[in-house]
Amino acid sequence: MHLMRYLLRRLVLSVFVVLGVTLLVFVVAQVVPSDPAALYAGPRPTAEQIETARKVLALDAPLHERFFSFAARMATGEFGVSYKTRRLIADDLSVFLPATLELAVFSTVLALLIGVPAGVLTAAGRGGLLDRLGSLGSIAAVAMPTFFLAMLLQAFFAQWLGILPLSGRLSKEFAVLAPLPSATGFNLVDSLLAGRPAAFFDTLSHLVLPALTLASYPAGVAMRLTRSAMIEILQRRHIVAARALGLSGSRILFGHALPNAIGPALTVVGLSFAYALTGAVLVEIIFAWPGLGRYVSEAILSKDFPVIAAATLVVTICYVAMNLLIDLAQAIFDPRVAL
């Protein structure tokens, strides 16, 4: 009962967040010094063409009518067309968003799989060699610039060892000669649905380096937070009692201590998911990843408001959904959260 009330409360708050972001995006679009009609009319438009574009885009309507029309279109997924390219934004998002989501989810899972167990093991061996090496590694992961780490990984795994591809999302064999059927837009899922294991492992090999680059920072932070929480929890009475009862070390660490210590790490990794969605422009450029970051950055430079608004709303919904999953996981691991 407490869990359902907690999730319902979080869901209501999430709806208000999406509404607030919708209003904020619309307000920002009104104060930014740009003329959407001139951009829509094309290069070197005449005054008559700009006026015609203004009527087509309904820019001469009252402000409140424009907002309600904008909110209604966003709610139904009718994002309209790009002012610059005249392409349907929904079609562009169906290509770029799955690529970024696949990278973001994979890097988030990778950060959890690396950061949390490393934090548990370093806390268990506090003061030892493993703890010192883990602390050094976490500091390096947090402090190293993303672009520098990306180039190091490329040089080591792609150029020196030659075991992983340098860039791209798929090899030419699967991208051009035998393309995957796009059922979901996620290459890992589509390759499994199509029964093509070679394409699955090719996609996985292309994901590893950019995902490792994005996962380094949250993994380092998650490790530090997990280690600090585990050190405090391992000194509590119920852990001392479990040791006195003769329970194995792995059961004490992962069965009794970790559920109470994983909350901060989940929060950090959940926040890093938003960074992976929109802040991975450098990673996408370095690895030639056809994702949302480059698409939105080009729209920002050209002040293409419909693209910016649609991408912002979609990213907000994805981020809110991830936060709900993180909140649910925290409540399951630690029932006190729901109270």
TrEMBL record:
Swiss-Prot/TrEMBL keywords: Cell membrane, Membrane, Transmembrane, Transmembrane helix, Transport
Presence of the UniProt keyword Transmembrane in the record: yes
Family that this chain belongs to: Belongs to the binding-protein-dependent transport system permease family.
GO biological process, one term: transmembrane transport
Its membrane topology: Multi-pass membrane protein
SUPFAM superfamilies: MetI-like
PANTHER family per record: DIPEPTIDE TRANSPORT SYSTEM PERMEASE PROTEIN DPPB-RELATED
Pfam name, any one: BPD_transp_1
Subcellular location: Cell membrane
Protein name: ABC transporter permease
Record-linked InterPro entries: BPD_transp_1_N (IPR045621), MetI-like (IPR000515), MetI-like_sf (IPR035906)
Residues annotated as transmembrane: 103-124, 136-161, 198-219, 265-293, 305-326
Source species: Ensifer oleiphilus
GO cellular component terms attached to this protein's record: plasma membrane
Domain ABC transmembrane type-1: residue ranges: 97-326
